[in-house]
From TrEMBL:
<dbReference type="InterPro" id="IPR036188">
    <property type="entry name" value="FAD/NAD-bd_sf"/>
</dbReference>
<protein>
    <submittedName>
        <fullName>FAD-dependent oxidoreductase</fullName>
    </submittedName>
</protein>
<dbReference type="Pfam" id="PF12831">
    <property type="entry name" value="FAD_oxidored"/>
</dbReference>
<dbReference type="InterPro" id="IPR005288">
    <property type="entry name" value="NadB"/>
</dbReference>
C-alpha cells in the first residue's frame, strides 16, 4: 500500500496527526493495535488530565473540537437532567481530576465522527487492529513499514514519504534504527536538578491497567486472583503501608496520607471544581476519576455512579515493559495487580463503618469495551524518546528554577501545554517526583530526530527527558504534538523541504508557524503563573 503520510498508532497523537494531514488534503493510512482509537483517552480508559485554563486557552482548536464534541454527544444522546444539560462546562462524571470526565466510548464515538468525512472520501484509511513489526530504511530515510494483524496471520507493507510514530512506546524507533533514549538520563547529560548522577535506562515510570467500577446491590466479588497473596502482602519501602491499602505517599510532599473511599456519595455534580491548582482531588478515590455521576442524569438512568480506577495502588513498578525480554510477563503481572486491588476492595478493604470489603463493587468491562473487565490497553506513561535536535529539560519549565520568568520561550514553538512534572513511582525504586511547572511551549526541535529525515514522533516519544515527560505526556499535549507532526508532513511535501530545514531556515519556520496559527494551534501563553 502507498500513501502520503503513514501514521502508526491510533492514540490521541495519531488521530490528531491523521486529521491534520487529511484536512490539508493528504492521503493517510492510520493504524491501531487495539479495538478503539484514542489511546489513553479510550482504550487505556484514562479521563483527560488537563491544566486549569483548558476551558479558555492552552489547547489547539481541534482539541477543543474533541472536547466540545464529547459534551455535545452527551447533550444529544444521554438523559441528562435539565440542570446538567444547561451546564456550559458539563462534566458528565463530575470527577475531580478533570473538568471533562466521561465514559471512554463517548470519546471513541466523537473521534470517529471527526474522522468520518475523511474515511468516506477515502482520504484516510484505518488499518485496525495492526501493529508494526518491521521497517525498511535507506540511509537516513524510512522506506517502508510492515504491519501485522493482531489476531490472524496477515501482513501489510506500507510505503510513504513521511512516517509518523504515534505508538504508545515509540515502537518504530528500534525498528527503523532511529536513535532514542529510555528511562532516566544522567544529570551530567541534562543538567537537571532531579536527575541521578548516572543514567538509568531501565528506570521508567509505572504502568497501570485501569478499570471501571460501579457499586450496586448484591455480591459481585471476582474470583480470587492467582497472585493475590503476593500483592496483599507487598509493601514497597517508601509506601508507608502495604500497596493494597488506602495509604500511599502524597505525590507533592511524599508524606504518607490516607485517602477515603465512599461509593456513591450524594454530592452535587455542579459543585465539583476540578482545578488542580486548588485541589488534586484525590481525597475520596471514588470521586477522583468518576466518569458518570448518577445525579447528572434523570432519576433511574444510572443505578450507580461509575468510577475509573487509576489510583496509586494499581501502579505497577516491578519492572519495565520497554526494551526487556520479559515485557509481556510484566504486563500480565500489571493486569494481575489490578485484579488483586479489586478483589481486596471487594473483600478486605476497610470501610468507614468499621467493617471490611465492598462486595457491591461491580467490574464494568462493558464500559471499557473489554471481555476481561479491565481496560483494553495498559496506560503507559513513558515511551522511548527520540534523540532530538532539542531536548526539553527540567530547567526549561520547572517553577522552582524559572520562577517569575516563566518557562523558556522557544523561537521554534509549535504548541503549548501545562502540567506539573508528575512522575509516578518507577521501576528503579524511586518514589514520586512531583515538581511545579510553568506553562510551557513545545519546541519544533523536540520533534526533529538528530539523524532520520522522514520519521516524525507524534506522541509521547518526542525529545523530552524522563523528567519532563512527566509534563509532556498528557492528553492535550499529545494531541498537539500529533497535530503538528501531521501538518509538518504536509508542509514538507508542499515545499519539497525536510523537517530539519523547516526548523533551521527562518523563512520556512515563519511560514510553518503561520500555517499552525491558521489551523488554530496556539504557540504562546498569555501572562499567567504556574503551580
Amino acid at each position: 500500500m502507498r500513501t502520503d503520510v503513514l501514521v502508526v498508532g491510533g492514540g490521541l497523537g495519531g488521530v490528531a496527526a491523521a486529521l491534520a494531514a487529511a484536512r490539508a488534503g493528504r492521503s493517510v493510512i492510520l493504524t491501531e493495535e487495539f479495538d478503539w482509537l484514542g489511546g489513553q483517552l479510550t482504550s487505556q480508559a484514562v479521563p483527560p488530565d488537563e491544566h486549569s485554563w483548558i476551558e479558555q486557552f492552552g489547547a489547539t482548536a481541534s482539541y477543543r473540537e474533541l472536547r466540545n464534541g464529547i459534551r455535545d454527544y452527551y447533550r444529544r444522546h444521554y438523559p441528562l437532567t435539565e440542570r446538567s444539560r444547561a451546564w456550559t462546562d458539563l462534566n458528565p462524571g463530575a470527577g475531580w481530576v478533570s473538568r471533562l470526565c466521561h465514559e471512554p466510548r463517548v470519546a471513541v464515538a466523537v473521534l470517529e465522527q471527526m474522522l468520518a468525512p475523511h474515511l468516506g472520501s477515502g482520504r484516510i484509511r484505518v488499518l485496525q487492529p495492526y501493529r508494526p513489526v518491521a521497517a525498511e530504511t535507506d540511509g537516513d530515510r524510512v522506506t517502508g513499514v510492515t504491519l501485522a494483524h493482531r489476531d490472524r496471520d496477515e501482513r501489510i507493507d506500507v510505503v510513504a514519504p513521511y512516517v509518523l510514530d504515534a505508538t504508545e512506546t515509540g515502537e518504530l524507533l528500534p525498528l527503523t534504527g532511529t536513535e532514542y533514549v529510555t528511562g532516566f538520563e544522567s544529570q551530567a547529560e541534562t543538567g537537571e536538578p532531579s536527575a541521578p548522577a548516572e543514567a538509568q535506562p531501565l528506570n521508567m515510570q509505572a504502568v497501570s491497567v485501569c478499570f471501571a467500577l460501579d457499586h450496586v446491590d448484591g455480591d459481585h466479588t471476582i474470583d480470587r486472583p492467582a497472585g493475590y497473596d503476593f500483592w496483599r502482602d507487598y509493601k514497597p519501602d517508601f509506601w508507608g503501608d502495604r500497596l493494597l491499602s488506602w495509604k500511599s505517599p502524597h505525590p507533592r510532599t511524599l508524606e504518607i496520607v490516607e485517602r477515603s473511599f465512599t461509593p456513591n456519595p450524594d454530592d452535587d455534580p455542579l459543585s465539583v471544581n476540578a482545578d488542580q491548582r486548588l485541589n488534586p482531588g484525590d481525597g475520596n478515590l471514588w470521586t477522583f476519576r468518576r466518569i458518570a455521576a448518577r445525579r447528572n442524569f434523570t432519576d433511574g438512568a444510572y443505578g450507580s455512579d461509575i468510577t475509573l480506577v487509576n489510583w496509586p495502588m494499581i501502579d505497577y513498578f516491578e519492572g519495565p515493559v520497554i526494551d526487556v525480554p520479559n515485557a509481556s510477563w510484566h504486563l500480565s503481572k500489571a493486569r494481575e495487580l489490578s485484579y488483586a486491588v479489586l478483589y481486596w476492595m471487594q473483600t478486605e478493604a476497610p470501610r468507614p463503618d468499621g467493617g471490611t470489603g465492598f462486595p457491591g463493587l461491580r467490574l464494568r468491562g462493558d464500559v471499557t469495551g473489554s471481555a476481561d473487565g479491565l481496560a483494553q490497553a495498559p496506560y503507559i506513561r513513558e515511551s522511548r524518546r527520540i534523540r532530538a535536535e532539542y531536548t526539553v529539560a527540567e530547567q526549561d519549565l520547572s517553577l522552582a528554577v524559572r520562577g517569575d520568568h516563566g518557562a523558556v520561550s522557544y523561537p521554534d514553538a509549535v504548541g503549548v501545554g501545562m502540567y506539573r512534572i508528575d512522575l509516578h513511582p518507577s521501576t528503579g525504586g524511586d518514589n514520586y517526583i512531583d515538581v511545579g511547572s510553568c506553562p510551557f511551549e513545545i519546541p519544533l526541535g523536540a520533534l526533529i530526530p538528530q539523524r532520520m529525515e522522514n520519521l516524525l514522533p507524534a506522541g509521547k516519544n518526542i525529545g523530552t527527558t524522563h523528567i519532563t515527560n512527566g509534563s509532556y505526556r498528557l492528553h492535550p499535549v499529545e494531541w498537539n504534538v500529533g497535530e503538528v507532526a501531521g501538518l509538518l508532513a504536509d508542509f514538507c511535501l508542499a515545499q519539497g523541504e525536510s523537517p530539519r530545514a523547516v526548523r533551521n531556515t527562518p523563512r520556512l519556520l515563519a511560514d510553518f508557524q503561520d500555517r499552525l496559527t491558521a489551523a488554530g494551534v496556539e504557540q504562546r501563553w498569555p501572562q499567567i503563573a504556574g503551580y
